[in-house]
Write a structure and sequence with these properties.
This protein has about 350 residues and is α+β, with helices and mostly antiparallel strands. Helix content is about 30%, strand content about 25%. A hairpin with a 3-residue loop joins strand 7 and strand 8 (about 180-185). The protein starts with 16 loop residues before the first helix and ends with a helix. About 45% of the residues are buried. Bound molecules: 6-O-phosphono-alpha-D-fructofuranose.
């Protein structure tokens, strides 16, 4: 008879995210330990946000703040808390020079004139936060760049307005049935699950590869009538079995959760242009770019409808873009449908 779950002794041979980063750095000489120190600021922030998300209904943090963010969107109390946690825990890492957040109009200079500061970190502290009140998964995204050559310490915008293929690392945390951090530093995509018993992110998904195809497509079909023709043709083709398999629709309305399923199970996530958002709703720098970096490094594809997300040259910090990311099979069929428009 198999042991009851509670009798199973957890393995002692766990690999934390810090150990994994240091092991990776050993494989690639020249990388400095400061990068793992920087990422430890992210994991601490993620644990603090996770603790608040898990207790949202209990510590009166649920619900709407009296304030709105820079985009006029009503902030959730947890948005504000998560943003303060990210700004503090990343801002105290001496290797960090500039921070940019969805919740702040302009980038924040944190380097105090230190020449050790060489990284910019962009993030959405709590994506999907409108779902918190109904206990739906939410997430945090992050995107890390090196300070460009010949850019002055205080030219903050130039630190952050870089194409996504210049990211040195990127990823997200999804606060779902468990809390998982997925990141890539350009050498594979790896997932770490938070073990609340020991308060550490433990390697749980090493070298994630997105399946060649999936059985799910993820899009808000309420807007389908306003999608450009090529997207409507693509969705009709999936439903008609053009790719030789039956599909099911899955849409949570929380980008990170919808993408995380696509990364692990394959398929496609789409936020196309709509009447309300002709340039897409999602933000290029701190939503689309980290997702695209993870998708491409896991063997998937990520486009804006006309070309790779990672090749886009940003002109403003909060600019929006259409985002479609997924497995090669579905993505290549979509590209074919869009070309035929
Ligand atoms: P819609 C959440 O508000 C978010 O920014 C993403 O997480 C999500 O994918 C999208 O908006 C959902 O938007 O228009 O489908 O409700």
């Amino acid at each position: 008879m198999s042991k009851p779950i509670h009798a199973v002794t957890p393995s002692a041979k766990v690999i934390t995210i810090q150990q994994h980063i240091l092991l990776q750095e050993k494989k690639f000489p020249g990388a400095s330990g400061e990068f793992s120190w920087l990422l430890s600021g992210l994991t601490l922030a993620a644990k603090m946000i996770e603790a608040a998300v898990r207790r949202a209904g209990l510590n009166s943090i649920l619900g709407q703040a009296e304030s709105s963010n820079t985009h006029g969107e009503v902030q959730q109390k947890l948005d504000i808390y998560a943003n303060e946690v990210m700004l503090h825990n990343l801002g105290v890492r001496e290797s960090v020079g500039v921070l940019a957040s969805e919740e702040n109009e302009t980038p924040i200079i944190v380097h105090n004139e230190s020449n050790n500061a060489k990284y910019a970190i962009l993030f959405d502290p709590l994506d999907g936060s409108s779902n918190i009140d109904v206990n739906v998964s939410v997430g945090t995204t992050f995107s890390i760049y090196r300070r460009p050559v010949d850019v002055e310490l205080n030219e903050a915008s130039k630190w952050v307005l870089q194409p996504g293929d210049q990211q040195v690392a990127a990823g997200y945390v999804v606060y779902g049935s468990s809390t998982v951090m997925v990141y890539s530093a350009g050498r594979g995509v790896h997932g770490f699950t938070l073990d609340p018993a020991i308060g550490a992110f433990i390697l749980s998904h090493e070298d994630i590869r997105m399946p060649e195809h999936g059985i799910y497509y993820s899009v808000n079909e309420a807007y389908a009538d306003t999608f450009p023709e090529g997207y409507r043709k693509f969705l009709a083709g999936l439903r008609q079995g053009v790719l030789g398999r039956k599909y099911s629709s899955r849409y949570i309305g929380s980008m990170i959760a919808d993408f995380h399923r696509t990364l692990l199970k394959g398929g496609i996530f789409l936020y196309p242009p709509t009447d309300d958002h002709p340039n897409g709703k999602l933000r290029l720098l701190y939503e689309a770019n980290p997702i695209a970096f993870i998708a491409e490094h896991a063997g998937g594809i990520a486009i804006n409808g006309t070309g790779p997300i990672l090749k886009m040259h940003p002109t403003s910090i909060h600019q929006r873009t259409p985002l479609i990311a997924g497995s090669p099979s579905e993505m290549n069929y979509l590209i074919e449908c869009l070309k035929a428009e």
